[in-house]
Amino acid sequence: MKRILLSYLLISFSVSLPAQQNKLVKALLPDHGTLQFAGGIGFLSGGIGYDSKNKRIQTDLLYGYVPEKLGGVTIHCITGKFTWIAISGRMNNNIRVDWLSTGILINYVFGKQYFFLSPDKYPLKYYGVPTAAHVGIFAGGGLRYKKAGIYYELGTTDRDLASYVGNIKAIPFFDIVNIGVGAKYFF
Fold first, then answer.
1. What whole-number distance in Å separates Cα of residue 171 and Cα of residue 160?
2. Cα separation of 181 and 35, whole Å?
3. pTM score, two decimals?
4. CATH class entry, domain 31-186
């Protein structure tokens, strides 16, 4: 009897294991791929993302690049984005319009010239904010047709806001606003 019970448990476990692995693999596979131009996260950025079940929240992980010709130095960064699609509507079964989306991002720039904490060679609080890590906010919209989508964003970063607040008369407001446009493909 013990041998039959043990055999049954082993067979049940081995049959259910592929189903559990399949669920895990499906959960780890991204829901969409993203390619973005500008927007404060690199001249060109690409990555993967996940959608919530109700398709109103998206999270993305993007690698960004700025060539030396445009940035003075070659810049590599990584960005985590959290987007909430606040207002959307369907034109028909194939077309969805995201009238308003908003979100937050965290960007980290790699390189020895950037730092998270001020180096010892500078007095305490010489730099008001880290040069390697930034938090940003953005708002925008988008259009999705079947599995392809395009979007735009207007945003700013903590560093730009801090500079603006301290120099409202010297810095025009639109100098702290960045614009990004992108495309997504939904798997």
1. 10
2. 9
3. 0.83
4. mainly beta
Rounded Cα distance, 134 and 156, in Å: 10
- List 79's β-bridge partners, or say none: 62, 107
Which of 174, 176, 101, 104 has its CA nearest to residue 137? 104
Domain boundaries, the chain: 31-186
- Confidence class of residue 57 from pLDDT cuts 50, 70 and 90? very high
Is-contact 105 82, C-beta < 8 A?
yes
- Residues 25 and 47: their CA atoms lie apart, in Å, by 18
CA distances from 90 to 94, 142, 145 (A): 8, 12, 10
User: What is the 3-state secondary structure of 127-182?
Assistant: CCCCCCEEEEEEEEEEEEECCEEEEEEEEEEHHHHHHHHHCCCCCCHHHHCEEEEE
| 152: amino acid identity, one letter | Y
Encoded tokens for 69: 């010709």
Q: Is 42 left (phi over 0), alpha (psi -120 to 50) or beta?
A: left
Average pLDDT over residues 39-48: 97
